[in-house]
Amino acid sequence: MLLCYRLLLIAAVSVAASVAGADDQIPTRVPASIAAAEDGSWPMPSKNYASTRYSGLDEIDRQNVSDLKVAFTFSPGTGRGQESAPIVVDDTLYFVSAFPNILYALDLNKPGAPMKWKYEPKPAAAAQGQACCESVNRGPTYSDGKVFFTTVDGQTAAVDAATGMEVWKVRLTDYTKGETMTMAPLVVKGKVLVGNSGGEFGVRGWMTALDEKDGKIVWRAYSTGPDKEVLIGPEYKPFYDMDKGKDLGITSWPSDAWQQGGGAVWGWISYDPELDLVYYGTSNPSPWNDSVRPGDNKFSNGIFARDPDTGAAHWFYQIGPHDLFDHDSINENILLDMAVGGRQRKVIVRPERNGMIYVFDRTSGEVLSADPYVFINATKGVDMKTGRLIYAEDKKPISGKVVRNICPMARAPRTGTPRPTRNPPASSTSHTITCSWIGRRPASVISRARLMSART
């Protein structure tokens, strides 16, 4: 089990948000349509739609942090990995345990934060054996008086935030086929966005929008298959030629392999209200053995921008065409307005598992920069004209050949549950937390990467 080696050494990767050729007088900031006054709430795992995981609270600083003492502890009583990010709304903290995925509400107004209530969804015990990487849960999200979360046996539930009473619960997967759910939902415009897990077991990845009121499916967009099922239509305008073409979700696979092609959606979602687009990543193609799936294996290992009302794809960028190393592209898409080439651009900043930090134009999917933030030798960077990742030939896994010292390997950078950041020392710098594995030994890497201006 991969999670047997979850001992981590955490290192901060400090990334200068001012880019080469940028105007220092143009500030880097969270988009105005997302920015809000700090009220102490943390209603979703990534704090806000921009996925900044940044708190503006300032009572704790460098001078008094050493005075912190334990205020309370709470044990969910499970022996599994605890990956749920806690959320806070008003005076209540909510989190979800690993299996049996119990949702807890703790009262922050009272000493010791006693439990207000708990909601037990009672997922099927057999689903534990179908989860690829332990029966974890990545947390709840809050909207309009309700808390939403998923269960390992493929259900999504809505619970009254005040009382803990079930509002609705729907089943979306068949866990007996290896299709489970572990992700934290996001609620956008009355729709609960969720995705599936199980790319290692040959599921067909999807993102689904549920009606916030009753849990009914509004739309579902697959990561593989014909355009009509990937919800690719006239709105779809990818920046690079490699992502253009009819039914790439079929033609980039051998025969009917797309039906078990992976591309699961178990990571993090961002939303830009001004552009009215949601952004999320897709996971590894299936199976891991790349020799049996020639082609680019669309639309795995990439980023989608979609209309939250209809699910229609506006653009896609494939970070890892024909993935070789299980570098799931499910990490956060941090939305910022940032100076690039002397003018303000609407960008996505994304530390990727392949060891590079990407800056995208989030209106089009154009790669503005892609530079290493850790040591890498598995790839040689990104071709800035074609957008294509360049694999190092001597590090490609080949049957019958021993290939050593691949960096990053499958469990390296930006793996695991991200940690929040607060009060960076300068407005021109953004901070993220990374962790890296080398073989079975945890290792930490501290790096500074400069976001380069567009090479056009």
Write a compact overview of the structure shown:
The chain is an all-beta fold and 456 residues long.
Short descriptors:
globular; disordered C terminus; 4-stranded antiparallel beta sheet; disordered N terminus; mainly beta; 456 residues; Thrombin, subunit H
How much helicity do the residues have?
A: under 10%
| Strand adjacency order, main sheet | 3-4-5-6
Mass-distribution shape: globular
Q: Between the first and last Cα atoms, what is the distance in angstroms?
A: 44 Å
Q: What's the alpha carbon Rg, rounded to whole Å?
A: 21 Å
Q: Class by helix and strand content?
A: mainly beta
Oligomer: single chain
Uncertain regions: pLDDT < 50 for 5+ in a row? 1-22, 416-456
What's the overall average pLDDT, rounded? 85
Q: Which helices and strands occur, and which strands form pairs?
A:
Elements: E1 11-16, E2 54-55, E3 87-89, E4 92-96, E5 103-107, E6 115-119, E7 141-143, E8 146-150, E9 155-160, E10 166-171, E11 186-188, E12 191-195, E13 206-211, E14 217-222, H1 227-230, H2 248-251, E15 269-272, E16 277-281, E17 302-306, E18 313-318, E19 334-340, E20 343-351, E21 356-361, E22 367-372, E23 379-382, E24 389-391, E25 421-422, E26 429-434, E27 436-438, E28 441-443, E29 448-450
Parallel strand pairs: 1-29, 2-25
Antiparallel strand pairs: 1-26, 3-4, 4-5, 5-6, 7-8, 8-9, 9-10, 11-12, 12-13, 13-14, 15-16, 16-17, 17-18, 19-20, 20-21, 21-22, 23-24, 27-28
